Amino acid sequence: MPERAARLWRTLGAAFVVLVFVPPLLLLVAGSLTEPGLPPSPTPQLVPDPLSTTGYQRALDLGGLLRAAFNSVLVAVLAVPLSVLVASLAGFALARLTRRTAAVVVAASLVALMVPATALLVPRFAIFRFLGLTDTLVPLIAPALLGSSPLYVLVYYLAFRAVPTDLYDACQLADLSPLRTWWRVALPLVRPVTGALTALTFVLTWSNFLDPLIYVYDRDLFTLPLALRSLSLLDPTNFPVFLAGAVIATVPALVVFALAQRRFLRYDDRSEG
């Protein structure tokens, strides 16, 4: 009975996601296939007449999306794994502290989460400028050295806290170092958490607009959000060019989300089995 209820809620959740997110995506794709240069249609069209891929060609040429996509991929490939590894290490270390010490660190992390991100822009910019790292991709990757967000560390802390203490004791009896215990025992047991945070970190890193806007000035270093901003400045008759760029920028995030969802479903099926 609980398994049937879980399947029902999962189906309802999937249906809700489809109803909320699929229609805007369909309109996005339909708009990107509209012929550029024509007056905007007064009503949305799911099947434009005529169909055209000219918007994609112009988006690649005018917006420099290929170079921007390479920069975004480079940032994501470096920042996402680094962020997840640092957050998992910090969460594991926090889980192995005494409850009183861990409570103090958790409280400090919650306070840090309450600080608006915009309040840190000026001091972070001053630090990177002093180090001569502005107009590079380094400021976009550097936050990963701190786990990107205290939230990630807290999520891992809760996940590692759920691992039976007897398992950690057995690792100590087997003379495993804390680092090997984290890598060989604890981290494999929280794979769903790692998958979820990896997908979340990738989406946030891929769509990050504010940091590149502040730190990057050279057009050759633009990431996809900045390149899309330049396309948004085109006149309304060329709006399909901007939508085509948006489709190109959205596809990788959708692919990562789909892969993560597939892993979650496989893990649930294995758990139920």
Automatic annotation (TrEMBL):
Matching Pfam families: BPD_transp_1 (PF00528)
UniProt membrane topology term: Multi-pass membrane protein
Membrane spanning residue stretches: 12-33, 73-95, 102-128, 140-160, 181-206, 239-260
Gene Ontology cellular component list: plasma membrane
Top-level division of the source organism's lineage: Bacteria
Membrane keyword on record: yes
Positions of the ABC transmembrane type-1 domain: 69-260
GO biological process: transmembrane transport
Key words, A-Z: Cell membrane, Membrane, Transmembrane, Transmembrane helix, Transport
Location of this chain's protein in the cell: Cell membrane
PANTHER family registered for this protein in UniProt: ABC TRANSPORTER PERMEASE PROTEIN MG189-RELATED (PTHR43744:SF12), ABC TRANSPORTER PERMEASE PROTEIN MG189-RELATED-RELATED (PTHR43744)
Family the UniProt entry places it in: Belongs to the binding-protein-dependent transport system permease family.
Listed name of the protein: Carbohydrate ABC transporter permease
Source species of the chain: Micromonospora zingiberis
